[in-house]
C-alpha cells in the first residue's frame, strides 16, 4: 500500500515533516529543555587562559544563531551529531591538517558540524525522492534505502569539497613558488638576512605563498626558532615541491650554507617541474583529442567512402 492508497500525498507528508521539525526546534529553544549541561557551565571557570599571541590564534567559528544551529557553540542543536560524526570519521589531527592545507580558518568542530548539515540536507533530498517513488508505486525498500544513501552522499560531498580546495590551493602555491624563490634569492644576494628577505618578499607579494610566509614570520617573531617555523610551514602544505623548498631553506639557514644559491637552485627545480607537468598535461590532452577522431570522425569518413560503392553494387542488375 502506497501513500496515495492511504489517503496521503507527498506534499502533505513533506509539510507534516517540516512542521514536526519546526516544533522540535522550537521546543529545544525553550529554557526548560535547553538548559546547559554541567560541563558547559563549569568550562569557562576551569579552562586555562590562552598564553600565545592572538596574532597566531586560529580563525573563530561563526557566532550567534549560525553557531547554535551548526552546533559550534556549547549546547548547540547539532552538537551531539557532530560528536558522533567525529567518532566515526578520520582522526581530528588529519582533518585539522587538511583544513590547514586548504588555507581555511574553519575549526575541526565547525567542519564536523558542516558535515552533519550536509548529511541532513542529503537525507532530506533523498526523503523527498523516496516519497515520490512510493507515491508512484515504487518499492518501499528502495525508498527506505534512499535516505541513508542521501545522508552518506552529503557527508562525502563535503569531504570532496575540502579535497578540491586543498588541490586548488596546492596549484596556486606551486604557481607562485618560482617567483617567490627568485625574489628571495635577489633579496639575500642584495645583503638581506633570511628573516629580512622573508619579510620583504611577504610585504611585496600577494597570494597564498606570501600569506604562508607572513604566518611563518609571525611564528618566528613570537619566539619560535626560524628553522622550526619553516618546518611548520612545510607541514602545513601538501605540495611536495614546496616542502622540499622549505626544507632546503631550513637546512641552509641551520648549516650556514649560501642561501642565495640554494634559493636559485630551488627555483630552477620548480620551473623544470612546471615544464614537465605542462608536457604531461599536453600528452593527456592529445590522447583525449583522439577520442572524437576515432569514434566520431573516422566512422563518418568510412561511411561516406563505402556507402556510394555499396549503393552502386545494390543497383547493378
Automatic annotation (TrEMBL):
<dbReference type="Pfam" id="PF00482">
    <property type="entry name" value="T2SSF"/>
</dbReference>
<protein>
    <submittedName>
        <fullName>Tight adherence protein C</fullName>
    </submittedName>
</protein>
<dbReference type="InterPro" id="IPR018076">
    <property type="entry name" value="T2SS_GspF_dom"/>
</dbReference>
<keyword id="KW-0472">Membrane</keyword>
<feature type="transmembrane region" description="Helical">
    <location>
        <begin position="6"/>
        <end position="27"/>
    </location>
</feature>
<keyword id="KW-1003">Cell membrane</keyword>
<feature type="domain" description="Type II secretion system protein GspF">
    <location>
        <begin position="182"/>
        <end position="305"/>
    </location>
</feature>
<feature type="transmembrane region" description="Helical">
    <location>
        <begin position="287"/>
        <end position="307"/>
    </location>
</feature>
<feature type="transmembrane region" description="Helical">
    <location>
        <begin position="140"/>
        <end position="157"/>
    </location>
</feature>
<keyword id="KW-0812">Transmembrane</keyword>
<dbReference type="GO" id="GO:0005886">
    <property type="term" value="C:plasma membrane"/>
</dbReference>
<feature type="transmembrane region" description="Helical">
    <location>
        <begin position="116"/>
        <end position="134"/>
    </location>
</feature>
<keyword id="KW-1133">Transmembrane helix</keyword>
Amino acid at each position: 500500500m502506497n501513500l496515495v492508497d492511504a489517503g496521503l500525498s507527498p506534499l502533505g507528508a513533506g509539510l507534516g515533516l517540516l512542521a514536526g521539525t519546526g516544533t522540535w526546534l522550537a521546543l529545544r529553544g525553550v529554557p526548560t529543555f535547553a538548559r546547559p549541561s554541567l560541563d558547559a557551565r563549569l568550562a569557562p571557570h576551569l579552562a586555562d587562559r590562552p598564553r600565545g599571541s592572538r596574532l597566531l590564534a586560529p580563525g573563530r567559528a561563526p557566532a550567534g544563531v549560525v553557531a547554535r544551529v551548526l552546533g559550534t557553540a556549547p549546547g548547540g542543536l547539532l552538537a551531539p551529531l557532530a560528536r558522533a560524526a567525529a567518532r566515526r570519521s578520520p582522526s581530528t589531527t588529519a582533518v585539522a591538517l587538511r583544513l590547514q592545507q586548504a588555507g581555511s580558518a574553519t575549526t575541526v568542530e565547525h567542519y564536523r558540524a558542516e558535515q552533519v548539515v550536509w548529511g541532513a540536507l542529503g537525507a532530506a533530498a533523498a526523503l523527498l525522492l523516496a516519497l515520490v517513488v512510493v507515491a508512484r508505486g515504487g518499492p518501499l525498500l528502495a525508498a527506505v534505502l534512499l535516505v541513508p544513501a542521501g545522508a552518506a552522499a552529503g557527508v562525502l560531498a563535503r569531504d570532496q569539497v575540502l579535497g578540491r580546495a586543498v588541490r586548488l590551493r596546492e596549484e596556486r602555491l606551486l604557481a607562485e613558488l618560482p617567483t617567490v624563490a627568485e625574489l628571495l634569492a635577489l633579496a639575500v644576494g642584495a645583503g638581506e638576512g633570511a628573516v629580512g628577505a622573508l619579510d620583504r618578499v611577504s610585504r611585496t607579494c600577494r597570494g597564498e605563498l606570501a600569506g604562508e610566509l607572513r604566518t611563518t614570520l609571525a611564528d618566528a617573531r613570537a619566539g619560535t626558532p626560524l628553522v622550526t617555523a619553516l618546518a611548520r610551514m612545510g607541514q602545513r602544505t601538501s605540495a611536495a615541491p614546496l616542502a622540499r623548498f622549505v626544507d632546503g631553506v631550513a637546512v641552509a639557514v641551520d648549516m650556514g650554507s649560501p642561501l642565495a644559491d640554494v634559493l636559485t637552485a630551488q627555483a630552477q627545480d620548480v620551473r623544470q617541474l612546471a615544464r614537465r607537468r605542462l608536457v604531461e598535461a599536453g600528452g593527456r590532452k592529445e590522447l583525449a583529442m583522439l577520442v572524437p577522431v576515432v569514434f566520431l570522425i573516422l566512422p563518418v569518413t568510412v561511411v561516406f567512402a563505402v556507402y556510394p560503392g555499396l549503393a552502386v553494387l545494390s543497383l547493378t542488375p
